[in-house]
Amino acid sequence: MDHVEFDREPPTNLTTMVMAFGGWIDAGQAATGALRHLVSELSATRVARIDPEQFFVFTQERPDVRLRPDESREIHWPRSEFFACPPGSGREGLLLFSGPEPHQRWRAYTKAFLDMAERCGVKRIVSLGALLAGAPHTRPIRVTGRSNDPTWRSVLEAWGIYRRPTYEGPTGISTIVLDAAEQRGILNLGLMGQAPHYLQAGENPAAIHALLTYVARLLHLTLDMSHFADAIQEFRKQCDRAVAGNRSTREHVQQLEQQYDATASEEKQTLPDGELDSDKLMQELEEFLRKQREGGTQS
């Protein structure tokens, strides 16, 4: 199989794939963080990886160097990895995937990706993502969903999180993969969390927890998420301290809280689709950062 390197022969009864790409729609590292938790909780085993050589520009996604105990060096290249979780305990077989968004040759990458999925018996794909949105860190993370499967769509509608696709514009690798999967007859469902746009660095445990909650409900998984309570509480304390140091930031968060509370009962979303309008977002971010700079000495 072109571009795929196998650790072992994968199972062929993994009917559902859960995938998460780092980068453009991984705000707060929510999608990849949720996928890592699934791999750990389900004791999934790595079965294959996509060779990064043809798909990444290594000056943009640099390999890491690690030192071994004997002081020799070990190189870690960008990892696009598949993990297998065979059926068991009332759970169907799962193929889990996590990797950074590739820089080039997306069509060849997508073909290798879906060839691997079909080899494992995948019939449907759950895509995880998170975008930067006008959402305050003091409120629960909103998650929206969409699906081309009528059964899954009914579930999302019952949960009140289904959003009809309306976005047009630049897109990411997950959209390319799902479009190609649909052409192959593979059903798909996307879950998208909304992370605060003023917190662009670091991992957001609240967003990770929100995505995991819906995945667990959707796929009938039993996951231990007890440690998230303390992590979320500490995360919000850190955010509170950061926000408290600047008046313009405090006022901005207060505005977001008012908007969130006003729309909560109406079940409206700031961004109605699971993809990112990059131009609009950059304009909003530039305006927000400009106000921060102008008010940087205020308290």
Could you walk me through the main structural features you see in this protein, from its secondary elements to its overall organization?
With 299 residues, the protein is an alpha/beta fold. The chain has one domain: Rossmann fold (3-Layer(aba) Sandwich), CATH 3.40.50.10900. It is 38% helix and 20% strand. The protein is built from eight helices and ten strands. The strands form two sheets. The protein has an eight-stranded mixed β-sheet with strand order 1-3-6-7-2-8-10-9, sandwiched between helices. A hairpin with an 8-residue loop joins strand 6 (81-85) and strand 7 (94-100). The longest helix has 18 residues, at 247-264. The chain is globular.
Entry keywords:
299 residues, alpha/beta, Rossmann fold, eight-stranded mixed β-sheet, two-stranded antiparallel ribbon, 10 strands
Brief summary of the model shown:
38% of the residues lie in helices and 20% in strands.
Assign the structural class, choosing from mainly alpha, mainly beta, alpha/beta, alpha+beta, or little secondary structure: alpha/beta
- CATH class category: Alpha Beta
Fraction of residues in H or I helices: 25-40%
Total strands: 10
The tally of structural domains comes to 1
Main sheet makeup? 8 strands, mixed
- The ordered string of helix (H) and strand (E) elements is EEHEEEEEHEEHHEHHHH
Total helical elements: 8
CATH superfamily: PAC-like subunit
Q: Which percent band covers the strand fraction?
A: 15-25%
What does the overall shape look like? globular
